[in-house]
Write a structure and sequence with these properties.
With 85 residues, the protein is of the alpha+beta class. It is built from 3 helices and 4 strands. Helices cover 38% and strands 12% of the residues. Strands 1-2 form a two-stranded antiparallel sheet. A two-stranded antiparallel ribbon has the order 3-4. α1 (30-42) packs parallel to α3.
């Protein structure tokens, strides 16, 4: 039985590996999800990562992120929430 493989909402390719569902129901491949989280650590306007204006739940996404990226993401969250930097 063939299963339908969704397309990644970012790159548009069929997802052949790990597929991650966004809060809005869209799908991401792991590479694009990592790019989204990495971009959010460089650009405060992209923090926190979201799809269709719905924030990703970091607790659910953490398993897909390398340890270094997860740590950097948490550090940037603290920095971005600091009022008087």
């Amino acid at each position: 039985m063939l299963r339908h493989r969704p397309d990644c909402v970012i790159c548009g390719d069929k997802i052949n590996g790990v597929q991650v569902r966004a809060p809005c129901g869209d799908f991401y491949d792991r590479k694009c999800l990592l790019s989204l989280f990495e971009a959010s650590t460089r650009d405060e306007e992209l923090y926190p990562p979201r799809c269709c204006q719905q924030e990703f739940d970091f607790a659910l996404m953490r398993i897909h992120l390398p340890i270094q990226l997860a740590s950097l993401f948490l550090e940037k969250g603290k920095e971005y929430r600091t009022k008087d930097r």
